[in-house]
């Protein structure tokens, strides 16, 4: 072939001294050893030890719930008592999961079967049947009640039925759990009484939605996942009970979401109006607010065998891979303008997505994103609720979410790579080390400080222990055939045999999706939980290896930062010039004579170590308004509501605050803050809201600072103003010195301000975070392109110093003697690297066992087995 891909390295700085080199070799060796450990095979004995450890942890968690909390919905693991709604301070929307129906018990039932605790399962089912009531006068979340309670009852019924049919246990069981599920289904149905068919977000278990006693029914919006995560449970309920109504409603809600997708991008937004179907929030990602909508399209196809769901999923998936997935990152974009990313952080809920990609058969991006997530857990112990695209903590809470364990399980099933067992082991160890408390496991309030929160959510028992236990179990060790079931989003087990159970009523008006997709190997394949590429773990390793040091954790000491870029290089050697030209850099082609180079063009191929010489000129910067944000972080907003704000030229410079400024908001009185502050006691220690107008911003800020506020959000008094239509501006002082004002100050237009004041009215306690919209590592503003002229040629001896003396230059000099490194040599180098890695492994295992390193380190060059090698073209931009 005339054309070859070659690599060009940018090397900056000077060669290391010998001491540094030794240090580098030592650290690299240790890291190589650690990496080997991660890829090392796990013996069956070791797996058993870890599985036993997981069972012990489960006993501690479940035992504590039963001892200290049952019949309450949840355990408060720090106070060693149950959380009873109404008796504890209201936590906002999180409490909508609590329906006084022993939530944790029901959510845990089928976990008991997975963990082979069949006596405990039988006891727990008896308790559920005898003691749980579903008709409480409580307003609950339709979504949470569906996935946790209805799903929990159905999963437990399916398991109870299976055990009963085996004839050993549960002989007394007469479908009581299914009857309870049916009762609960009927209690949720009033939520679907909307003109659109999208469900209300909340329902009163006793009084429904529109009943005067229901205390709900005023909501106009719901999240996409909330409306789109009903089909598995509702269809299973219909097919098991013979009542079509459930499946019909869930299906209708999915039809509406599909109808309302943005036709240009094929993406959906995060929040939708349940009455008219208009999008309320148009940001689109795969995490919070949308996540399980996509999951349920894929799984509805698996469970129900209906192609419509798969076709919809495939169309969305293509859009996700085009706009949202930038491996290893998963971004959030605007559904109407999807090439623009709308925020610079990711939420931890998206950690389920690699697992879904495994079901789709798309392993490469799954491995990449999972590896990124693993690196984040290495850095912060757990996945923070939100972390920036530079992997810094954006929001440090970790409520023991299971999504990362879930994806780890799927990746292990698909690859057979023992690396994923090591990842699972690290999850187990961290839970024990940092979340275990005497009465259970406590959520982490902030991964940076390791402080705990008095909560252990039911999904910890429903999901985390299932995925961890299954990761370390063989199929034969389970009391049922795991491949006969599909996991709901709450990890409840539903039998895929339901696909052959006809829906009780065939009539539906589901719109068949037009197919306009790039098809690939997996577009119509039946998802499988079997190893997709049987025991060839090396391809996963080659994919992972590029992301090993993504977050900087465990990075070898590099005195010479080397940035590698891939350049297509023709024999003529001209492509790099074109490539750089395309980046706006103009080059003078290499003058061989000048460089004293006498070899043929062929000799210029290969790996180059070069220095770049360039004269740089820069145009003076215009003054720019740095957009800021007000992010609502307390429940129910949980960081999802982000309001664009303008900065101030005075007061605290938020671009210099690493974590922004956080606080709860209080309205100033008077609201304009133009006179003495009447409610100073309330304002103290809070972020004040003050209306624009009547007096200067600086005067308002001074008065509120004196009253003890920790920040001020000014709200525009001009009705209808909003950040989409009105350019942002910087608030200025009053002409006098403003150095006395040290508060952070931001400005919201009235439409954004109204969101904030409405939130305050509804929820009383609203915590917000003030910070610049885009904060890049080490920069507060996106860098402007520089105008550059670059001369590109080989250096003469001693010329580097001369060049440096001429002022601002970049040096790009081809070093002689390092020109020719053919691919064969590269392979040789890599083989050498593997051999030395193997040596580290052997050394490490000398004292324990003689088992060599796994195949994972043996053939990183073998990319022919890549799961994508047969798939369609990469659709990433
Ligand atoms: C679970 O309740 C479900 O997995 C849901 O889909 C979203 N996440 C929580 C656990 O994090």
Please supply descriptive tags for the structure shown above.
877 residues, alpha+beta, Glucose Oxidase, domain 1, 6-stranded mixed β-sheet, 24 helices, binds 1-deoxymannojirimycin
Put the structure in a nutshell.
Belongs to the glycosyl hydrolase 47 family. Ca(2+) binds at residue 489. It contains 24 helices and 34 strands.
- The quaternary state of the protein chains shown equals single chain
Q: How many helix segments? A: 24
CATH topology of the domain at 624-775: Glucose Oxidase, domain 1
Helical percentage: 25-40%
Report strand order across the widest sheet: 27-26-32-28-29-30-31
CATH class of the domain at 624-775: Alpha Beta
Radius of gyration: 30 Å
In the predicted model, the low-confidence regions spanning at least 5 consecutive residues are: 1-31, 556-575, 586-622, 776-796, 799-877
Task: Itemize the secondary structure elements and their pairings.
Blueprint lengths: L3 E8 L6 H22 L4 H26 L4 E3 L4 E3 L19 H12 L3 H14 L7 E3 H25 L9 H13 L13 E3 L16 E3 H5 L2 H11 L3 H15 L11 E3 L5 E3 L1 E2 L6 H14 L2 H18 E2 L2 E2 L2 E2 L2 E5 L3 E3 L5 H8 L2 H18 L5 E3 L4 E3 L7 H13 L3 H17 E2 L2 E2 L2 E3 L4 E2 L5 H14 L13 E3 L5 E3 L42 H8 L16 E8 L5 H8 L3 E3 L3 H4 L12 E10 L10 E5 L8 E5 L15 E7 L12 H4 L3 E5 L5 H10 L4 E5 L29 E4 L1 H14 L3 E6 L14 E5 L7 H7 L6 E3 L8 H23 L32
Parallel strand pairs: 1-25, 24-33, 28-29, 29-30, 30-31
Antiparallel strand pairs: 1-23, 2-3, 4-5, 6-7, 7-8, 9-12, 10-11, 12-13, 14-15, 15-16, 17-18, 19-20, 21-22, 25-33, 25-34, 26-27, 26-32, 28-32
Helix pairs in contact: 1-24, 2-15, 2-16, 3-4, 3-5, 3-16, 5-6, 5-8, 6-8, 8-9, 10-11, 12-13, 12-14, 13-14, 14-15, 14-16
Bound molecules: 1-deoxymannojirimycin (DMJ).
């Amino acid at each position: 072939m005339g054309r070859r891909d070659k690599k060009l390295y940018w090397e900056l700085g000077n060669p290391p001294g010998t001491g540094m080199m030794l240090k580098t070799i030592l650290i690299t060796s240790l890291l190589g050893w650690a990496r080997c450990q991660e890829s090392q095979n796990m013996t069956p004995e070791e797996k058993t030890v870890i599985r036993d450890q997981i069972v012990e942890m489960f006993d501690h968690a479940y035992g504590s719930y039963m001892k200290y909390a049952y019949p309450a919905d949840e355990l408060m693991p720090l106070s060693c008592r149950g959380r009873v709604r109404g008796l504890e301070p209201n936590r906002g929307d999180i409490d909508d999961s609590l329906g006084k129906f022993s939530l944790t018990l029901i959510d845990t039932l089928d976990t008991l079967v997975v963990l082979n605790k069949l006596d405990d399962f039988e006891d727990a089912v008896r308790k559920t049947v005898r003691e749980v009531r579903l008709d409480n006068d409580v307003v609950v979340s339709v979504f949470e009640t569906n996935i946790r309670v209805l799903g929990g009852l159905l999963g437990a019924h399916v398991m109870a039925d299976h055990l009963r049919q085996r004839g050993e246990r549960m002989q007394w069981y007469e479908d009581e759990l299914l009857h309870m599920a049916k009762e609960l289904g009927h209690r949720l149905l009033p939520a679907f009484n909307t003109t659109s068919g999208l469900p209300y977000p909340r329902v009163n278990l006793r009084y429904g939605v529109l009943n005067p006693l229901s205390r709900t029914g005023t909501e106009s919006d719901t999240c996409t996942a909330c409306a789109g995560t009903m089909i598995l449970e509702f269809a299973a309920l219909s097919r098991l009970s013979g009542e079509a109504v459930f499946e019909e409603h869930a299906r209708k809600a999915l039809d509406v979401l599909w109808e309302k997708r943005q036709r240009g991008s094929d993406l959906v937004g995060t929040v939708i109006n349940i009455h008219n179907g208009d999008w309320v929030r148009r940001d689109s990602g795969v995490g919070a607010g949308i996540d399980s909508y996509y999951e349920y399209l894929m799984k509805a196809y698996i469970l129900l065998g209906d192609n419509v769901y798969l076709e919809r999923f495939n169309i969305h998936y293509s859009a996700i891979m085009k706009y949202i997935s930038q491996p290893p990152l998963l971004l959030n974009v605007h559904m109407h303008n999807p090439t623009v990313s709308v925020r610079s952080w990711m939420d931890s809920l998206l950690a389920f997505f690699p697992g879904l990609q495994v079901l789709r058969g798309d392993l490469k991006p799954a491995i990449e994103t999972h590896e990124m997530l693993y690196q984040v857990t290495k850095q912060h112990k757990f996945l923070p609720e939100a972390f920036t695209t530079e992997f810094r903590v954006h929001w440090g809470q970790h409520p023991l979410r299971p999504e990362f364990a879930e994806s780890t399980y799927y990746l292990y099933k698909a690859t057979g790579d023992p690396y994923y067992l090591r990842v699972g082991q690290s999850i187990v160890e961290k839970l024990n080390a940092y979340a275990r408390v005497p009465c259970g496991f406590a959520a982490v309030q902030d991964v940076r400080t390791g402080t705990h929160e008095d909560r252990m959510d039911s999904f910890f028992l429903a999901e985390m222990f299932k995925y961890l236990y299954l990761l370390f179990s063989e199929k034969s060790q389970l009391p049922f055939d795991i491949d006969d079931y599909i996991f709901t989003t709450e990890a409840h087990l539903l039998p895929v045999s339901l696909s052959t159970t006809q829906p009780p009523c065939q009539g539906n008006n589901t719109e068949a999706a037009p197919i306009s997709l790039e098809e690939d190997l997996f577009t119509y394949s039946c998802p499988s939980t079997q190893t997709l590429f049987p025991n060839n773990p090396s391809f996963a390793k080659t994919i992972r290896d590029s992301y090993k040091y993504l977050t900087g954790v465990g990075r070898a000491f590099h005195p010479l930062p080397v940035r590698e870029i891939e350049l297509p290089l023709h024999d003529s050697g001209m492509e790099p010039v074109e490539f750089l030209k395309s980046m706006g850099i103009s080059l003078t082609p290499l003058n061989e004579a000048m460089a004293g180079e006498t070899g043929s063009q062929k000799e210029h191929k290969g790996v180059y170590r070069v220095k770049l010489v360039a004269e740089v000129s820069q145009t003076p910067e215009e003054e720019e308004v740095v957009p800021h944000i007000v992010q609502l972080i307390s429940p129910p907003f949980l960081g999802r509501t982000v309001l664009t704000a303008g900065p101030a030229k005075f007061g605290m410079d938020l671009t210099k605050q690493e974590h922004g400024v956080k606080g709860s908001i209080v309205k100033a009185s008077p609201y304009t803050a133009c006179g003495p502050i009447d409610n100073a006691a309330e304002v103290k220690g809070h972020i004040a809201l003050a209306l624009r107008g009547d007096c200067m911003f600086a005067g308002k800020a001074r008065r509120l600072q004196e009253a003890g506020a920790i920040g001020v959000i000014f709200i525009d008094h001009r009705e209808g103003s909003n950040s989409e239509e009105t350019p942002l501006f910087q608030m200025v002082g009053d002409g006098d010195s403003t150095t006395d004002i040290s508060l952070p100050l931001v400005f919201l237009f009235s439409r954004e301000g109204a969101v904030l004041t409405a939130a305050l009215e509804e929820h009383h306690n609203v915590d917000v975070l003030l910070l610049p919209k885009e904060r890049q590592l080490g920069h507060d503003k996106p860098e402007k392109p520089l105008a550059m002229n670059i001369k590109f040629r080989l250096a003469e001896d001693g010329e580097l110093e001369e060049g440096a003396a001429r002022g601002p230059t970049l040096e790009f000099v081809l070093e002689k003697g390092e020109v020719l490194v053919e691919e064969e040599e590269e392979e040789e180098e890599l083989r050498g690297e593997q051999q030395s890695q193997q040596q580290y492994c052997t050394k490490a295992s000398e004292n324990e066992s003689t088992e060599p390193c796994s195949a994972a380190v043996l053939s990183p060059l073998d990319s022919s087995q890549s799961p994508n090698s047969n798939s369609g073209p990469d659709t990433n931009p």
